[in-house]
Amino acid sequence: MKRRDIVVANWKMSPETLIEAKKVFNSVRGLAKGIRNTDIIICPPFPFLYPLLKLNHPKNVFFGVQNIASEIKGAFTGEVSADMAKGIGTKFSIIGHSERRAMGESNEIIRKKLQVAFDTDLIPILCVGEKERDKDGNHLAFIKNQIKECLTGLHKKYLVGIIVAYEPIWAIGKSYKEAMTPTDIHETTLFIKKVIGELFGGDIAVGSKILYGGSVEAENAGSIVEYGNIDGFLVGHASLSAEQFSAILKAADLKR
Ligand code: 13P
Asked: Family, per the entry (predicted)?
């Protein structure tokens, strides 16, 4: 089977209303029809998920949640279980986003969430990324440790086709001018695959998908696709703009 790239739209805590969410989703539905080789995963805020899921959408559009609880069930006020997400038709879950790590999510909690996702048959998108880069390469050790602590102990069968989103925190929520350069992205995605290979075997590394996220916009998507050695994008703010998202999808789709 041909390997498909994926573009994930992380809407975060936007847009403000269901009406706006439907508008954004409508434009995605329109765009998706022209996209052939790429799967599109929309991750809206929880209250918008079900109403959007009920709308018709092309076969290459899927839904994801931005987070799941680390427990399967029980008395956990404010949490949403993986089962609930799965039960309404969600296929994916972002796990360990840096904005959730900043709220106290540790690698240990993230590993629990990954296990819950696998047990529920939700496909996780594991986020990793450093706060800052330094000349001595300490950020690489930091990323390696995140991968090691989040994935070690999970059964190898779950790691087949694992999706890792590399999102350097310093590049998130800015403009394309401040995003990471395609060459640096290339270096880091190679490093991530190497780490996965060392820890879990070459077969797991080869089958893994590495996405890039952090100020992907219409202006830099094409060059990152061309030179960044990526299998897709995790897009924040630009995924809420029809014009921007359209350009990003087209850039990703042109690769193959
Ligand atoms: P931006 O695309 O807004 O930089 O966000 C990236 C991100 O955090 C996606 O998960």
From this structure: Belongs to the triosephosphate isomerase family.
Q: What separation in Å is there between the alpha carbon of 98 and the centre of ligand 1?
A: 10
Rounded to the nearest 10°, the torsion over CA 115, 120, 123, 127 is -40
Burial of 111 (0-12, 13-18, 19+ CB in 10 A): buried
Distance from C-alpha of 88 to C-alpha of 94, rounded to nearest angstrom: 17
Answer yes or no: 167 catalytic.
Answer: yes
Residue 39 pLDDT exceeds 70: yes
Reply yes or no on whether 97 is catalytic. Answer: yes
**Segment (H or E) for 31:** helix 18-32
Residue closest via CA to ligand 1's atom 9 equals: 236
Tens digit of each residue's pLDDT (9 = 90 or more) over 133-146: 988 889 999 999 99
How many separate domains does the chain show? 1
Question: Which residue is listed with tokens 């998202």?
Answer: 245
Determine the structural domain holding residue 73 and report its residue range.
5-254
Tell me which of 71-80, 95-104, 130-139, 157-166 is least confident.
130-139
Four-point Cα dihedral 76, 79, 82, 83, nearest 10: 60
pLDDT at res. 163: 98
Domain CATH number, residue 117: 3.20.20.70
Q: At 255, is the pLDDT very low, low, confident or very high (cuts 50, 70, 90)?
A: confident
Catalytic residue among 99, 105, 130, 167: 167
DSSP secondary structure code for residue 202 in this structure: H
116 C-beta neighbours (distance < 10 Å), count: 21
